[in-house]
Amino acid sequence: MASFSSLAQSVSFTSQGSSFRLNDKHPELEPIGKGRSAYAFKIKETNLVIKVFFPSFESVAKEEADVYKVLGQNPYYPSLYDSGDRYLVIDYISGDTLFDCLVKGIEIRDEYIHEIQQALLYARKQGLNPADIHLKNIILTKDKSIKMIDVARFRQHQKCRRWLDLKKAYTKIYKKWFFPNKTPEFVLNLIAFFYKRRLIPSFR
Asked: What gap in Å lies between CA 108 and CA 101, rounded to an integer?
């Protein structure tokens, strides 16, 4: 296998306005996701993911790597294996995000919410301030345990209400009899769109 740094250097992007399109990559890399700051690739024949950041977000690579170093070895977070100027390498987590669970009709149980609470409590005990917690960065693994990913904003100073609002929505809406078994993806994206623009009131 090529070195992690060589794999990262093989990735190139083409700018498309405010976003980026994947232009080229090493054949050992399998694209598995694209976020607002990076592409994620599974390294073939391994259980590792390399996250390569867009040029305008390279500082986020160091920030996220530093947060993973603070978190250390913990069952609720992937381990960090390497990092560089524009990349980091972590465990590949197989499973469904909570967003996927709502779309597919996979039950989100009370114990999963408790595990998320424990994961966030652990991070706070390490001196971090977990933020930007949303349905797409919480994974329910194949063995029905919780993993948290995308931790770059865990050192921000301002208070983030996202998890508080998600937790209350779980109790006040998801657990009610009228909540559908499956929720269309476009509906979830629409809710997120309005929430980010504060057009949906936070739970108090």
From this structure: 7
| 20 and 72 assigned to the same domain | yes
| Residues with catalytic function | 132
Does 124 lie in the same domain as 87? no
- pLDDT single digits (tens) 43-70: 999 999 999 999 989 999 999 999 999 9
Three-state helix/strand/coil letters over the chain: CCCHHHHHHCCEEEEECCEEEEEECCCCEEEEEECCCEEEEEECCCCEEEEEECHHHHHHHHHHHHHHHHHCCCCCCCCEEEECCCEEEEECCCEEEHHHHHHHCCCCCHHHHHHHHHHHHHHHHCCCCCCCCCHHHEEEECCCCEEECCCCCCCCCCCCCHHHHHHHHHHHHHCCCCCCCCCCHHHHHHHHHHHHCCCCCCCC
pLDDT for 157 beyond 90 = no
Please report the pLDDT score of residue 202 as a whole number: 62
Question: Which of 31, 57, 91 represents a domain boundary (last residue)?
Answer: 91
Answer yes or no: is 177 within a domain: yes
Query: Does the residue 6 lie in any domain?
Result: no
Establish if 139 belongs to a structural domain.
yes
Instruction: Please state the pTM of the whole predicted model.
Output: 0.92
Q: Model confidence at 158, in pLDDT bands (50, 70, 90)?
A: confident
